[in-house]
Write a structure and sequence with these properties.
heterodimer; A: 314 residues; alpha/beta; Rossmann fold; seven-stranded parallel beta sheet; five-stranded parallel beta sheet; 9 helices; 28% strand; B: 249 residues; nine-stranded mixed beta sheet; two-stranded antiparallel sheet; 6 helices
């Protein structure tokens, strides 16, 4: 049977997590169809048609679908789902928000945030902040699944030539929820979930102002800036910086943890990084147990040095 | 307005969990259990709404084994008024939990359901959305700011790229995120008082809900361990390693 993947996009561009989800779908096996549901999003549908491995693009266009409001999007997905064996979406705040409603509409369980595909009905998903891996089998006729992007390589954004088919966008503009604007983070740096390098600060940074030291280094490395939950709780930075069990799950080529002790819930969000470096003045900090390269140092001395050192060889 | 707050008993946040040797799950015997931290934030928010005169009664609901009563008592000690325990030994999944909560909400008629965005044991992040869909009520997940006026809620939601503002009609189901508030500790007098607050006990069958699992957990394993690396002596050595050995910068 075919597999329906729900594309994440902003009506202008396809979000990268979609590509990882397409890969997970391909591993399940079967034709992969990509649903682009939005408003005035024909450009996204065209981009979706070029994704390698996509057999067909379904384009649903309606004003009610502009902002991905769960109450409006879920019925469109649920109606289409009847023809599929699997429905997949990225395990981002977009996918997590509406997919459980699709599961309810189909009266099936949802399998959240899979990290591997064992077979068409068996999947591995992290539980307890990734401190255990559960292998779960679904007996439901339609499997509703969200996909952890970091554990699947992205499908190639170019190379495919799928047909684009217009589908019923429904008329379910609900009257209970009104979208009242987006406050996008004014962040000129790469996004955390797609950055090749991330430098994150923890409670050891001592203030939000001190994050400027990380930003300076991030700009030299074209890196994203992240934070531990402790730094978010302390009010140093907004929540969308947060890496961890309850924040973003990342797996960059290089993760630099600065003034982060390495609590279980933070490690859950970054331990799949290819290389981990850390700077912490407490040599007993658990972060050293996962770091490939650890420096025991006062970050307020080490960061300016690091900034200078990067200038040297660049 | 009544506020319903579902609370889950989970392995305490600070416990390093152990996978059972036979691969059937995670060890929960003789392990400290506590209220799911996100649910504490939901309880706190309900109490603040009551203190602000926007709610009259707070009902804490839990589903699970007999000991889930303790989790309800924690909510009562914080300031909830009464509890409901849906008692079962079944391994509960979000869909079954949401169906039980639906029945309770239909009976109690709350104006608001506040719940944690996810439980830190199964990390499913499903129950609030499912409950909202079952009830046909508005949903707002990952709420970090909440204002209630004129039968409506204005919320800010934490999403990947920033914050989303929604205006939603009540009744509604809200799932709460970290920055909404800092939960209070229960005082000793309040802990004593909570012992006298009523808890109703019922079973999923009493609610007419079949909670048998839809998923089969074939095994639970430990993730591959990440080998620790080396300590470097200086920033210069760190940069050298990253540049020339790991080749990541």
């Amino acid at each position: 049977m075919s597999i329906l993947v729900i594309a994440e996009h902003d009506n202008a561009e396809l979000k990268p997590a979609t590509l990882n989800t397409v890969t997970a779908a391909a591993q399940i096996g079967g034709d992969v169809h990509l649903l682009v549901a939005g408003h005035n999003c024909a450009a996204v549908a065209e981009a979706a048609a070029k994704v390698a491995g996509v057999a067909k693009v379904l384009h649903a266009d309606a004003p009610a679908l502009e902002h991905g409001v769960a109450e409006n999007l879920a019925p469109v997905v649920a109606r289409l789902a009847a023809d599929y064996g699997h429905v997949l979406a990225p395990a981002t705040t977009f996918g997590k928000n509406f997919m459980p409603r699709v599961a309810v509409a189909l009266d099936v369980a949802q399998i959240s945030e899979i990290s591997a595909v064992e077979s068409a009905d068996t999947f591995i998903r992290p539980i307890y902040a990734g401190n255990a891996l559960a292998t779960v089998q679904s007996k439901d006729a339609i499997k509703v699944i969200t996909v952890r992007g970091t554990t699947f390589e992205p499908a190639a954004a170019e190379g495919g030539s799928a047909a684009v088919e217009t589908v019923d966008a429904g008329s379910e503009a609900n009257d209970k929820v009104t979208f009242a604007g987006l406050e996008e983070s004014s962040n000129e740096r790469p996004e955390l979930t797609t950055a090749r390098i991330i430098i994150s600060g923890g409670r050891g940074m001592q203030s939000g102002d001190n994050f400027a030291m990380l930003e300076e280094i991030a700009d030299k490395l074209n890196a994203a800036v992240g934070a531990s939950r402790a730094a978010v709780d302390a009010g140093y930075v907004p929540n969308d910086y947060q890496v961890g069990q309850t924040g973003k799950i990342v797996a960059p080529d290089l993760y630099i943890a600065v003034g982060i002790s390495g609590a279980i819930q933070h490690l859950a969000g970054m331990k799949d990084s290819k290389v981990i470096a850390c700077i912490n003045k407490d040599e007993e900090a658990p972060i050293f147990q996962v770091a490939d390269f650890g420096l025991v140092a006062d970050l307020f001395q080490a960061l300016p040095e690091l900034s200078k050192e990067l200038d040297k060889g660049a | 307005m009544k506020i319903l707050v579902p609370v889950k008993r989970v392995v305490d946040y600070n416990v390093k969990i152990r996978v059972k040797a036979d691969g059937t799950g995670v060890e929960t015997q003789n392990v400290k259990m506590s209220m799911n931290p996100f649910d504490e934030i939901a309880v706190e928010q309900a109490i603040r709404l009551k203190e602000a005169g926007l709610a009259e009664e707070i009902i804490a609901v839990s589903l699970g084994v007999t000991q889930s009563q303790e989790t309800i008592r924690t909510a009562l000690a914080m300031g909830a008024d009464r509890g409901i325990l849906v008692e079962t030994d079944e391994a509960l999944e979000p869909l079954g939990v949401a169906k039980c909560l639906q029945k309770i909400a239909e009976k109690e008629g709350p104006g608001l359901i506040l719940m944690g965005k996810q439980a830190i044991d199964d990390d499913a992040n499903q129950t609030p959305q499912m409950l909202s869909a079952l009830l046909g009520w508005a949903q707002a997940t990952y709420v970090s700011k909440l204002e209630i006026a004129d039968g409506k809620a204005k919320v800010k939601r934490e999403i990947d790229g920033g914050l989303e503002n929604l205006e939603i009609a009540l009744p509604a189901v809200l799932s709460v995120d970290l920055r909404l508030n800092e939960p209070r500790y229960a005082s000793l007098p309040n802990i004593m008082k909570a012992k006298k607050k009523p808890i109703d006990t019922m079973s999923p069958a009493d609610l007419g809900v079949d909670v048998s699992p839809r998923l089969v957990t074939l095994k639970v394993t430990e993730p591959p361990k990440r080998a620790g690396g080396v300590k470097v002596e200086s920033v210069a050595e760190l940069v050298d390693k990253l540049r020339n050995e790991a080749k990541v910068i």
